[in-house]
UniProtKB/TrEMBL annotation:
GO molecular function, one term: oxoglutarate dehydrogenase (succinyl-transferring) activity
Function: The 2-oxoglutarate dehydrogenase complex catalyzes the overall conversion of 2-oxoglutarate to succinyl-CoA and CO(2). It contains multiple copies of three enzymatic components: 2-oxoglutarate dehydrogenase (E1), dihydrolipoamide succinyltransferase (E2) and lipoamide dehydrogenase (E3).
Protein name stated in the entry: 2-oxoglutarate dehydrogenase, mitochondrial
Entry-linked NCBIfam families: 2oxo_dh_E1 (TIGR00239), PRK09404.1 (NF006914), PRK12270.1 (NF008907)
Keyword terms, alphabetized: Magnesium, Metal-binding, Mitochondrion, Oxidoreductase, Thiamine pyrophosphate, Transit peptide, Tricarboxylic acid cycle
Gene that specifies this protein: LOC109718221
Domain called Transketolase-like pyrimidine-binding: residue spans: 628-841
Known EC number: 1.2.4.2
CDD domains, per the entry: TPP_E1_OGDC_like
Compartment list: Mitochondrion matrix
Highest taxon of the lineage: Eukaryota
A Pfam family of this chain: 2-oxogl_dehyd_N
Organism of origin: Ananas comosus
Cofactor: Mg(2+); thiamine diphosphate
GO cellular component terms given for this protein: mitochondrial matrix; oxoglutarate dehydrogenase complex
Amino acid sequence: MAWFRAASGLTRLALRRTLARTPPNITQTRHFHPTALRRHAAPVPRPVPLSRLTDSFLDGTSSVYLEELQRAWEADPSSVDESWDNFFRNFVGQAPTSPGISGQTIQESMRLLLLVRSYQVNGHMKAKLDPLGLEQREIPEELDPALYGFTEADLDREFFIGVWRMSGFLSENRPVQTLRSILNRLEQAYCGTIGYEYMHIPDREKCNWLREKIETVKPMEYDHERRTVMLDRLIWSTQFENFLATKWTTAKRFGLEGAETLIPGMKEMFDRAADMGVESIVIGMPHRGRLNVLGNVVRKPLRQIFSEFSGGTKPVNEGEGLYTGTGDVKYHLGTSYDRPTRGGKRIHLSLVANPSHLEAVDPVVVGKTRAKQYYTSDADRTKVTGVLIHGDGSFAGQGVVYETLHLSALPNYTTGGTIHIVVNNQVAFTTDPKAGRSSQYCTDVAKALNAPIFHVNGDDLEAVVHVCELAAEWRQTFHSDVVVDIVCYRRFGHNEIDEPSFTQPKMYQVIRNHPSALEIYQNKLLESGQISKEVIDKIHKKVLSILNEEFINSKDYIPRRRDWLAAYWAGFKTPEQISRIRNTGVKPEILKRVGQAITALPENFKPHRAVKKIYEQRAQMVETGEGIDWAFGEALAFATLIVEGNHVRLSGQDVERGTFSHRHSVIHDQETGEKYCPLDHIIMNQDEEMFTVSNSSLSEFAVLGFELGYSMENPNSLVLWEAQFGDFANGAQVIFDQFLSSGESKWLRQTGLVCLLPHGYDGQGPEHSSARLERFLQMSDDNPYVIPEMDPTLRKQIQECNWQVVNVTTPANYFHVLRRQIHRDFRKPLIVMSPKNLLRHKDCKSHLSEFDDLVGHPGFDKQGTRFKRLIKDQNDHKDLEEGINRLILCSGKLYYELDEERKKKDRKDVAICRVEQLCPVPYDLIQRELKRYPNAEIVWCQEEPMNMGAYNYITPRLLTAMKALNRGSIEDIKYVGRAPSAATATGFYSVHVQEQTEIVQKAMQPEPIRYPY
Ligand SMILES: Cc1ncc(C[n+]2csc(CCOP(=O)(O)OP(=O)(O)O)c2C)c(N)n1
Ligand SMILES: [Mg+2]
């Protein structure tokens, strides 16, 4: 194939040059498209010097040359280029009916071959894709037979086109055919209502597979039974929209009118997928046609859809204090059902809830699909598949599409192929395609991933069904992405109350008079006499009567108990149901055992010297229990969770080694390059994927979305995404805003996803210092002026909050906060401001006894060993310390700097408390400390600028805690930290050092702090 492609450009040039010299001598035929007006005779062969005999065959244009070549080949096949060898072997071995091999014959066959190939490459350019017929595309010259020297006189002549190792028209087994029949089939196959784009795929097997499907001897035909089913499905799709339109005339529903064939297309696709082994499909789609998909494809009860339409998605009246969240508009909600298929199987369909942000759901769907594959042991990824539906505008415009496509073949992210369907209504709100994209097709982005693309005229139901089935077959055969581009139109405005003629007057003049796909199909069937009017009317009546019946039933429809808990989530608690706080300490013997397992390396493994040392140090930490650092604390959290049967998955850029070269969770043998991951070897016969650590593509949006989707499938998994530096998280802002912070509230779906965002001021400049803590805190939904129930036996504070934000300062506390994610009966996202310089800080170490659950050990308090939301002053203060003059509340690594300065200045009258969990605020512990130091000046100290960090979040909450104790007013909260700033940090290291010094010095100054009041 490669030689063919490379050479074809040259040949085309040569042909063009030759053709330009030849006079016209044929009349136009209706087989040739209107651009084929050139009247050329066959090209006159050019002499080619014998010295070029070894050239590749597509370079040659002279019959003399060819004859010379043939002679040379006959004498010694190896004397000519391999491509010529193949060529002659085929032609010499042809059937006896062949007119014999002469230079002229070879010439013609060669030119015909180029013509065939042009159809394969460019046939889609001539396909009738636009139902409105408005498309003005220039038909490529390459599809003009005259370009290759063929005239009308050639139409009934017979030609060879057999070529070795090709299928379809180019297969060696094709008999001799007339030019007319070849052209007819090419036109039917490539220029009908389907436009195939696949010649960009650099894999002969795949191209041949498609060619076999496309270049069939006869055009594809469905039988009567299939046609009746398709008709029935199209009637459902069409009537559904009509019904909604008549019942709710002014409601926005983002109807499917103009693209109704999507529904039968999807159903037939799913049936075909089920026939080929698919048992479960995860679907993501935007607003357009969503209700129709929910009702007709996913089979959400129509009465429920109608009930939601009438009343909005009202909170379900199912008792007091129901967990309904804020809800969402009807065309965003997700659901899942089991649906019977045409072939008599059952298929599970889940439509993932999505925000208005187009395409943002793509990676979420793919991540959820991957998780389903893990939990159903779908090793070859043929039982669970993702299907994404896109709009033409958003598919071309949104970058996350490209980011998601790029996950498709990555070992730890692949799902064995996503099927993409574009509802290409040739407009995006009011924007025409020519203003909305720079590529010819809205699907061109998928070509970068070598996905085949099937463009289809949305008015041709059978063609839509055909490509939908073909897409399912491709996915099941080649386990890679495939795109169906349904070219259709939007009968009404962007929504039903929008006026489209303001901006697309001409298009809408055509649309007004354009029959629906259903009318077109019905007429086709009636004309062909295949289905009678009575049968059609009967289906219509049946559908309408069911719709009416469901509408009546919707009036007293009582929603089922909310279905937020998927199978794996049974027993998990909603925020109304209290979840007991559990300890997270681990038995010392287990800690030792897993500690040894994850520090042992295979005998002959040769790690890098520095890594070897790190592992020796870790082994030492287990042995002595001393000096456990951040990375090892994390590894112990992962390992203990795995021992308990949980799945752990950490993904993000360079996470295997760790951006700061601290994790080294995958080790590389320095001689063989072999990899070894100690956390894969904790339990006997551990499943390879049970612990997954994976460097991701250089994407934030798609990768975070993927992990979010992954985390939502099963609660018994700790899924973590780590940003390279915390501020890169803003590349995934949509996932934070639309999914992570608000998803539970909108869609009642929980997730325990952990985001590790490196944060801290070490003088590395504006882009490497801040994870924008303030943003996460600002999105937190706890009321700053209300202290919730804080009693440990009644506390639901975290359950009622949208997420947790922590800035942890010890390896042990990090260990416990990770384990806490799993050791509770609910799931909540966790945002971690993770450290950089603490990874190697001499004081940022924990003792193994802080990880275990033994009474009397340092981590053990009244309840046992668990995450410390606040770490009190380390100077062994009593319950009442009247001599303390200043209480500094801080968070994160600044603590260590403050402590050092305190030691330096010997300020025994200053207490420093670390607020490890910023959100939700540990009111009980803050109040405990306020009471401990009744005379202390209260200081909030941070290293971030005043308009950043936790200051704005903490102030009102600290005030609320103080007020409840009659402990002063807002003026009594003193601020020590950087001044407000636009950039997060200075780019000058010396300025950083000076600023940092000023902060710690000010915090320890003997005189009272006056700032900011
Ligand atoms: C990320 C994002 N940007 C902008 C919008 C606003 N918006 C809603 S629909 C729409 C047009 C979408 O066009 P297309 O993808 O072709 O889908 P269609 O509505 O035509 O089905 C726009 C711009 C949005 N929802 N999401
Ligand atoms: Mg559109």
